[in-house]
Amino acid sequence: MACNIPSHGEGSEAIELTYFGEMESAELTLVNLVLWQLAAVVKFVVTPSAMVAAGHSFLAAWGITSMGSSFGVAFFWHFGKWVQRSIERRRNQHEAPQKKVFTPRRRRIVRLKNALGMPGLLCLSGLISVPLASVIGAKYFRDTPGAMVLLMSAFVVWAAVLTFVSWGIKHSIL
Helix, strand, or coil here: 56? Predict the structure, then answer.
């Protein structure tokens, strides 16, 4: 799908913008695909912009960033649950059950969790890293039905927004 935008002035030609479709000049090999997906896990906010700047199409940047972040959510969600269980087991083996002490830090975390809940995590997920959002989700929302899928969906939406903004800036639309 292309759009011809006429330019104004003498002897000027129409500018053709590729919205979705084919790759512009960037080569996408299996190694590049895996590296871009890993970049989406580690630096989610920057990856769509870097992919658009490297010459990838909107769909390629959005799809690869979405897949990478979804794989990262699945990995860190299960990893976070495993870490939480092993910490709980270790505490139960070495210590007698004690009354929980609520420090000011724990109070802030609980207040923030209760105030924002799962919708807050979904809205903030694109601004914080994939591993951090996944571990927070696994710790506080592991019993919420479909929470992991919701978090993956939030990253897909964030990837679309960030890719569109980057693509629009590159093509002087925004």
Answer: coil
Rg from Cα positions in the chain: 21
* Nearest CA-CA partner of 155 in 174, 172, 137, 139: 137
> pTM score, two decimals?
0.76
DSSP H/E element including 16: strand 15-18
Per-residue pLDDT of the chain (174 residues; tens, 9 = 90+): 444 444 455 544 444 444 555 444 577 889 999 999 999 999 999 999 999 999 999 999 999 999 999 999 999 999 888 888 888 788 777 666 667 778 888 888 788 888 999 999 999 999 999 999 999 899 889 888 999 999 999 999 999 999 999 999 998 887
- Whether 58 and 163 have beta carbons less than 8 Å apart is answered as yes
Q: Are 141 and 118 in contact (CB under 8 A)?
A: yes
3-state secondary structure of 110: helix
